[in-house]
């Protein structure tokens, strides 16, 4: 694994660690944001391993690009990444969808996002090793 890819993955792991740490604080919108960030950075690690760095925050767009290049991406992962992508705006801005971020995410939603994020992390790690 390239050093740059390892750094992206390490940063993604730290975002996931932050998301987990915020769960007991009931900061579910922040859990959502850090899950999205972890997934985005992890997927970017796959691109960096190929010598490119996409200028997008869309995990779905990046994952689709990797599939086009021949990477076998499970269909369920696209569903999970789409869910995480929605958190990029919704989890941070009160005008994103007409409700405050703290009203959009509860414990159950945050737990589901953690599951999605872990799936992305496992997929990325299995394709970087």
Helices and strands in order:
Elements: H1 3-22, H2 28-49, H3 59-68, H4 75-90, H5 101-104, H6 107-128
Helix pairs in contact: 1-2, 1-6, 2-3, 2-4, 2-6, 3-4, 4-6
Write a brief structural summary.
It contains 6 helices and no strands. It is mostly helical.
Keywords:
mainly alpha; 129 residues; 6 helices; 0% strand; Four Helix Bundle (Hemerythrin (Met), subunit A)
How would you describe this protein?
- It is a single chain.
- The protein has helices at 3-22, 28-49, 59-68, 75-90, 101-104, 107-128.
- With 129 residues, it is mostly helical.
- It has a single domain, classed as Four Helix Bundle (Hemerythrin (Met), subunit A) (Up-down Bundle), CATH 1.20.120.
Quote the beta fraction: under 5%
Radius of gyration over C-alpha positions, nearest whole angstrom: 14 Å
Helix content: over 70%
CATH architecture verdict? Up-down Bundle
């Amino acid at each position: 694994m390239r050093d740059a890819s390892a750094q992206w993955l390490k940063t993604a792991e730290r975002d996931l660690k932050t998301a987990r740490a915020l769960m007991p604080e009931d900061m579910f919108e922040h859990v959502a944001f850090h899950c999205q960030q972890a997934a985005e950075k992890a997927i970017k690690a796959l691109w960096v391993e190929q010598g490119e760095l996409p200028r997008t925050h869309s995990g779905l767009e990046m994952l689709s690009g990797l599939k086009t290049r021949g990477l076998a991406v499970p269909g369920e992962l696209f569903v999970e990444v789409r869910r995480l992508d929605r958190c990029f705006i919704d989890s941070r801005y009160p005008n994103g969808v007409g409700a405050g971020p703290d009203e959009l995410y509860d414990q159950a939603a945050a737990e589901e996002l953690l599951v999605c994020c872990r799936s992305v992390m496992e997929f990325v790690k299995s394709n970087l090793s």
